[in-house]
Amino acid sequence: MPLPRLLGGVCALWLALLAVAAAQACTTVAYAGGDANLVIDTWDDTVPDVLISNWTMAGNANFLNGCSVSSPSPVDVIPTMPNLTFEHDVVIDGERYPAYSVVGMPRTPLFIFRYVFGNGSAVLNQPFDASRTLNSSGGSAAGAFRWSVLQIAAVSRGGQMEALPTTSVGSARHVFPPNPSLSKVESFSVTANLRSKTCTLTDTPVALLDVHSGDLPRAGSSAGTRDFNVAMSCNGTYTVYLSLTDANAPGSTSSRLTPTRNATAEGVRVELLRGGSPVALGSTWSQLSREPVALAARYYRESGAFGTGLVEGQAVITVTYR
After folding, report:
1. CA nearest to 192, candidates 229, 155, 141, 230
2. Which of 38, 269, 253 is nearest to 154 (CA)?
3. Domain limits, the chain
4. Does domain 199-320 fall into CATH 2.60.40.1090?
5. Of 21, 59, 116, 122, which has the fewest CB atoms closer than 10 Å, so is most exposed?
6. Rounded-to-integer distance, Cα 280 and Cα 9, Å
7. Cα(257)–Cα(250) distance, rounded to whole angstroms?
8. Domains 26-195 and 199-320 are alike in CATH topology
């Protein structure tokens, strides 16, 4: 009698193990993979570590069908990225990503990856290290089918970057560990179309209206204010940085221009204003590239000797774009 009881126990254990294995099994591949070509269309210089593209993936996220509806399905993601080299970590949307450049191209944009998995209703993602295999348990993403996909995006390097023709960077293989024959392969290529920022400024002579000596009764008084715009033409809308310098005294930090050789008036200078206030020559301000540079000029009486005549000054305006 003890023997049948022992055999019954072994049989029950064997059936229980089979039931667990069946609950975890996925049966077919829903999508065998494809090609992801990330195309970047941006300016060739920007602040560092900023996302400059959308996230791109190969085809769709589907991987496995016929999976357990009650427990997650594990997936291994095995990268082969021979054309990428690690540069440094970047933080995007609060997550830390390893960032890579193309081998032999030290001034191209940087590239990051994230792993997306789920079952359609629950979708999760995490940064992906392209130098090592990721063993994903599936987390809380249980369901009859399993998403598993890598996405690639571009990050600014900082400073001027170089364009990149379409270049293959490698591939990644997704494998279902309980049945390694269930797999899909994604390949990745990148293209960087970079535009150079260019702006031109127009020389702008400004003629102030004549004033009488009585309009400048004392040192520190001003008269004859005239508003004017310096035309600026840029090939896009972006932030530019502008500064004014005295053409005849480049180191000056005053708002008043040094008289030119043509000037004959004594104790009177041209003062420049921006936004209604005297400028600080040599300082920098920012504005959008599509806007004209709005300034004003006026006569300003200095302390000391004072005499009528021609008042003339020259300023140089410089635009910088990063």
Report:
1. 155
2. 38
3. 26-195, 199-320
4. yes
5. 21
6. 92
7. 10
8. yes
